[in-house]
Amino acid sequence: MNSQSKLTRPEAMIFDMDGTLFQTESVLLPAYHKLFDTLRSEGLYTSPTPPEERMLGSLGMLLEDIWKVVMPDGSQEAHNRANELLLQLELEGLAGGGTLLYPEVKTTLESLHQQGVKLFVASNGLEHYIDGIVETHELVELFDGLYSAGKQGTLSKVDLVKMLLEQEKLQSAWMVGDRSSDVEAGKKNGLGVIGCAYAGFGNHDELKGSDVLISSFPELLELYKKAIPNT
């Protein structure tokens, strides 16, 4: 754990999903390869499948922006079809079993929930994808709300977190995530930011500006315990 400042104990924690709670590659990579096989079979894409690293490095972006990075040579029709296929294939993968949360995510969330911390998800992903992960891994009862760009129609993580804070009438919260978009969303909304340095999808500068960096999810419990109580 790398602590740069003393945090105030929050009434809520807001979590990114991919690379923070959920080991995205456990469902994404099989779906990714099937997606491009399908695009080629449908005549919408003729090039080889782009490197996996290009997709993993784009996690945290809005889906429409991901395809511009992953297959810039693809048509708008191919991008639109890729949106449909990715959700379909990921939901099939979740239903098929074998997908993974990061170690001790569920027990850590249960402990925070029992201590009265309100828990939320704020993700740039699609609504049914986020719902699918939460349902598959039996986390439904732990969360007070699931916010996603796909459901809320926001154009940035900053806007999504702002909407969450306003709708839930939260006075204090920590933003917990693994990408620069999470850091930006937390800082621009006046939140403490916990950077998750265990996923390894982004570059070394992704989490610059975080208040604290953690190398495993359960470290949140100690951070919460040591935080300055709200007066």
UniProtKB/TrEMBL annotation:
Keywords: Hydrolase. GO terms for cellular component: cytosol. GO terms for molecular function: phosphoglycolate phosphatase activity. Signal peptide: none annotated. InterPro entries: HAD-like_hydrolase_sf (IPR050155), HAD-like_sf (IPR036412), HAD_2 (IPR041492), HAD_sf (IPR023214), PGP-like_dom2 (IPR023198). GO terms for biological process: DNA repair. It comes from the Bacteria. This is HAD hydrolase-like protein. It comes from Paenibacillus dendrobii.
